[in-house]
Write a structure and sequence with these properties.
The chain has 128 residues and is mainly alpha-helical. It has helices at residues 16-21, 24-60, 62-72, 80-88, 92-115.
């Protein structure tokens, strides 16, 4: 039995004149609304399950995990201009302080990595 809140109205087929009046803009608008809904749903799902899905992918198929990471990286990274400009404008004292902070962060990260034992490559994975 149809819902009392839903009224079905039969639609007549469009005439040739009406079909010609449909613009690419209206089709793009529909596609845009669909895309927006899709990405909102995807965002909600990722917000709820993203961390667990990433962990499951990393543990079950590390090769696919690395492929995904590589596909997200830009093809070309041009850091020379901004990095050079920033470094050139720094004084010797600022450079020394930056180097000291960087070395401390690297040492802390190295200790953190050494403390973790990571087994991500299963025995059946191909070796490079």
């Amino acid at each position: 039995m149809p819902s009392p809140y839903c009224v079905v109205v039969p639609r007549k087929p469009l005439s040739a004149k009406q079909k010609a009046g449909r613009t690419l803009g209206s089709q793009n608008a529909e596609r845009g609304r669909l895309t927006k809904r899709f990405f909102l749903e995807l965002w909600d799902d990722f917000d709820k399950h993203g961390k667990q899905a990433i962990k499951a992918c990393r543990e079950s198929d590390p090769v696919a995990y690395i492929r995904v990471l590589a596909s997200l990286m830009p093809k070309d990274i041009d850091l020379t201009q901004t990095a050079d400009d920033q470094v050139r404008s720094m004084t010797d004292e600022e450079l020394a302080a930056l180097l000291q902070v960087t070395m401390a962060k690297l040492a802390a990260r190295e200790k953190e990595v050494e403390a973790q034992v990571i087994e991500t490559i299963p025995a059946s994975a191909p070796t490079l």
